[in-house]
Design brief:
Elements (H helix, E strand, L loop, with lengths): L1 E7 L2 E7 L4 E4 L4 H7 L6 E5 L5 E2 L8 E5 L3 H6 L9 E5 L4 E2 L4 E4 L7 E2 L2 E7 L15 E8 L2 E2 H7 L3 H5 L4 E9 L10 E6 L2 E7 L7 H9 L9 E3 L21 E6 L3 E9 L1
Parallel strand pairs: 6-17, 8-14, 9-19
Antiparallel strand pairs: 1-2, 1-5, 1-14, 2-3, 3-4, 6-7, 10-13, 11-12, 11-17, 12-14, 15-16, 15-18, 18-19
Length: 270
């Protein structure tokens, strides 16, 4: 099923989108629903999607992201493929939702890039879990854009600012529960900028699959319900274009993953 966080009639709700409308569930927010389970939340009223404002599906406690997890992406930026997952963290304050605006100060960065990615939402506390059991801890999946300030990435020699500026982690529009995704390694990711396709890749090409990432990360961190893992981006980023291409004021960028949804955001330079 597809779950949305949204506002309607001046109130915030969590609901199940059934293709015709949104059926409210009895939960104050998505994290409470994840912790309590969808089955524990009885149905409420209904809302029309066109009359609702879709919000970020949740505000994760932790966002752990993986760099260079597709071989062709590593190669296009003249990087070697990592021998183990390359992990960095993104501030939860960077999260925005579908339809929200990616913003940045023009005198802070002039090289803002797109990175369409599959995001994994944890459903249970995970610590030192095995690869064989890893997917049992997943609540669901959503679409993410790991927006990156390439000049800050180069200048800082680490990625906290480049990946963590406010609005630089769009996710959504909703969360598709794990039972609706037969294989997270059989999904197509397509990113478009101003309607032009820039990325078209498959999660089958991840160097480290979702189950491997959960096993690896849970050896270092306790993964809690609602924590999110960004699994890396396929090739086709702007920095690798010849000449390089970056997002600008008024641009619209969309990331679509078949079976999960389409995430669209406009850009504004402050």
């Amino acid at each position: 099923m597809k779950l949305l966080s949204y506002s309607a009639n001046g109130h915030r709700y969590v609901g199940i989108y059934d293709g015709e409308g949104i059926r409210r569930v009895d939960a104050p927010d998505m994290l409470s629903l994840i912790e309590g389970g969808v089955g524990a939340a009885p149905a409420g009223g209904r809302d029309v999607l066109a009359e609702a404002r879709v919000l970020p599906p949740l505000r994760p406690g932790k966002i752990l992201a993986i760099g260079r997890n597709y071989l062709e992406h590593a190669r296009e930026l003249n990087n070697e493929a990592p021998s183990e997952p390359l992990v960095f963290a993104i501030m939860p304050s960077a999260v925005i939702g579908d339809g929200d605006v990616i913003e940045w100060e023009g005198d802070l960065t002039a090289q803002v890039d797109w990175e369409g990615e599959l995001a994994v939402i944890m459903g249970k506390t995970a610590r030192r879990v095995s690869r064989e059991d890893a997917l049992d801890y997943v609540f669901g999946y959503t679409v993410a854009n790991d927006v990156s300030a390439r000049d800050l990435q180069t200048r800082d020699k680490q990625w906290a600012r480049a990946k963590g500026l406010d609005t630089f982690c769009p996710i959504g529009p909703g969360i598709v529960t794990a039972d609706a995704i037969a294989d997270p390694q059989d999904l197509t990711i397509v990113t478009k900028v101003k309607g032009v396709e820039k990325q078209n890749g498959s999660t089958a090409d991840m160097i480290f699959k979702v189950d491997v990432l959960i096993e690896f990360l849970s050896r270092a961190f306790t993964l809690n319900p609602g924590d999110m893992i960004l699994t890396g981006t396929p090739s086709g980023v702007g920095k690798a274009a010849k000449p390089p291409q970056f997002l600008g004021d008024g641009d619209v960028v969309s990331v679509e993953i078949a079976g999960i949804g389409k995430l669209t955001n406009s850009c504004r330079v402050l």
